[in-house]
């Protein structure tokens, strides 16, 4: 029987819900492969400062996670199922 070791595990598309203290919620959709993101309002007002914070977070996530292979985390029992 062949060993089924995971050799590639990368972020591709992700969707996050981000909320602030005022009760506004945004949807952050990140396309890690193409280094793009989209922010849309889920509930509450479209607050410019909140939108800017979420955009800054998105850019940071793309910078850190784009093209990173997380397969090593699944090898030799490093992550439980």
Automatic annotation (TrEMBL):
Domain of life: Bacteria
Protein name: Uncharacterized protein
Organism lineage string: Bacteria, Candidatus Woeseibacteriota
């Amino acid at each position: 029987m062949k060993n089924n070791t995971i050799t590639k595990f990368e972020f591709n598309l992700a969707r996050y819900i981000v909320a602030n203290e005022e009760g506004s919620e945004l949807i952050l959709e990140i396309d890690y492969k193409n280094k793009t993101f989209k922010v849309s309002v889920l509930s509450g007002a479209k607050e410019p400062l909140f939108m800017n914070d979420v955009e800054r977070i998105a850019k940071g996530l793309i910078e850190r996670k784009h093209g990173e292979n997380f397969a090593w985390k699944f090898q030799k029992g490093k992550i439980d199922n």
